């Protein structure tokens, strides 16, 4: 992104989508999983391994299979979990795609080995999820139509392009009626779940 971002203007939607597509399709050559000191860790050209010491037994398992797996994870991260418009906005605002997205927003990344969750942590996790939802509600203030439609498509389990492709006037009316029905059905389902509790 840094290499292809012009200094004088924002990238067009198709430009950053091409970058995301190229990165997810062919950006993971040389990556794989390494067994380091008995733990599986992601390994590759852009990942530091300053903590390696002699005798830790760093052995990397890579190849085309890992490139494809990581490419699919990349595609889901960009298009389903974050959203291509939101990811570009994050990059444009910060000048980089920060690891906070992976660690804090999607929680796909973690440091260190996984530790089993204790029952006491369930309440803390629930409180954390409530706080996250409250923050997301605040973050939704002032979004543009394109961002709204992208998030709505994601919420309904569709790709953004399914909601934004060109249509005739009558097709747009039909699409809005279908979307309104989905919103209404989800609201009714949520309301019935609340009443059951």
Sequence-ordered SSE layout with sheet pairings:
Elements: H1 13-26, E1 32-36, E2 39-43, E3 59-61, H2 64-82, H3 84-94, H4 100-105, H5 119-139, H6 145-155, H7 160-164, H8 169-196
Antiparallel strand pairs: 1-2, 1-3
Helix pairs in contact: 1-2, 2-3
Describe the structure.
This protein is mainly alpha-helical and 197 residues long. It has a domain at 1-112. 58% of the residues lie in helices and 7% in strands. The chain has 8 helices and 3 strands, in the order H-E-E-E-H-H-H-H-H-H-H. It has helices at 13-26, 64-82, 84-94, 100-105, 119-139, 145-155, 160-164, 169-196; strands spanning 32-36, 39-43, 59-61. Helix 1 (13-26) runs antiparallel to helix 2 (64-82) and helix 2 packs across helix 3. The mean pLDDT is 77.
The number of strands is: 3
Shape: globular
Structural class: mainly alpha
Rg calculated over all Cα atoms: 21 Å
Strand order across the biggest sheet?
A: 2-1-3
What is the makeup of the main sheet?
3 strands, antiparallel
**DSSP helical segment count:** 8
Q: Beta fraction of the residues? A: 5-15%
Unreliable stretches (pLDDT < 50, length at least 5) are none
Succession of helices and strands? HEEEHHHHHHH
End-to-end distance, in Å?
47 Å
Approximate helicity band: 55-70%
Overall pLDDT level: 77
């Amino acid at each position: 992104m840094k290499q292809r971002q012009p200094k004088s203007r924002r990238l067009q939607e198709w430009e950053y989508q091409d970058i995301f597509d190229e990165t997810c399709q062919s950006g993971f050559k040389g990556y794989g999983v390494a067994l380091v000191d008995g733990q599986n860790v992601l390994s590759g050209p852009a990942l530091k391994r300053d903590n390696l010491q002699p005798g830790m037994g760093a052995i990397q398992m890579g190849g085309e299979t890992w490139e494809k797996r990581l490419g699919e994870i990349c595609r889901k991260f960009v298009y389903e979990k974050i959203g291509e418009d939101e990811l570009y906005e994050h990059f444009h605002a910060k000048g980089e795609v920060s690891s906070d997205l992976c660690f804090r927003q999607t929680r796909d990344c973690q440091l260190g080995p996984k530790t089993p969750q204790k029952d006491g942590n369930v309440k803390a996790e629930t409180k954390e999820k409530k706080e996250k939802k409250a923050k997301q509600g605040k973050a939704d203030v002032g979004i543009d139509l394109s961002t709204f439609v992208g998030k709505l498509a994601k919420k309904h389990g569709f790709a953004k392009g399914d909601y934004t492709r060109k249509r005739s006037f009558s097709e747009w009316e039909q699409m809005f009626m279908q979307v309104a029905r989905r919103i209404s059905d989800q609201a009714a389902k949520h309301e019935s779940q609340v009443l059951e509790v």
